[in-house]
Write a structure and sequence with these properties.
Helices cover 57% and strands 5% of the residues. With 169 residues, it is mostly helical. It has one domain. Strands 1-2 form a two-stranded antiparallel sheet.
Length: 169
């Protein structure tokens, strides 16, 4: 029932949209004090498509998203490490569904830059000008690698089937 609800939302608000994706470089950035800029709207759309439609998302990813794939790590004024790691998650999911090497190349460029910046610390600063270390970066990097090899929903389903997952309450 919940998956059907999610699929309905994606179909209604994303697949029927005239413009589904934008250039990553043109995504709005956070302005002003406080707040966060962790999430790429394009990455959110791709991850929602893949999570709700699976293989059915292939043609949309190839025809409408592939031409917009970033060629490298994208600089952001805030949270650029987490934001780019989030983009890497979408690249991994798109590659897993389509097999298109351009998605894998983008994934590799982003994760190699994150690795270079990480210097083995276990977490990364939010951005060059904000040295506080942030767990979102680590989460999105792990999520990106997970998306590259499997559908994260499969892990939950397998755990539930094997009795390792218990619903709260």
């Amino acid at each position: 029932k919940l998956l059907r609800f999610a699929k309905d939302i994606v179909v209604r608000h994303l697949l029927r949209a005239e413009v589904k994706f934008s250039r990553f470089e043109d995504e709005p950035t956070h302005v002003g004090p406080g707040g966060h800029d962790f999430f790429s709207s394009n990455a959110n759309r791709v991850l929602a498509l893949v999570a709700s439609l699976g293989e059915e998302a292939k043609s949309v990813l190839e025809e409408e998203f592939l031409p917009l794939v970033p060629l490298g790590f994208i600089e952001r004024c805030a949270d650029e490490n987490a934001w780019n790691a989030h983009v890497a998650s979408a690249m991994a999911a798109a590659y897993r569904i389509t097999g298109k090497r351009a998605f894998l190349r983008a994934f590799n460029v982003i994760t190699e830059e994150l690795e270079r910046r990480g210097l083995g610390e276990g977490s990364l600063p939010r951005s060059r000008d904000f040295p506080l270390r942030e767990s979102w970066v680590a989460f999105f990097i792990c999520f990106a690698y997970l998306n590259l090899v499997t559908d994260p929903a499969n892990i939950w389903c397998q755990s539930a089937l094997q009795g390792r997952y218990r619903s709260p309450g």
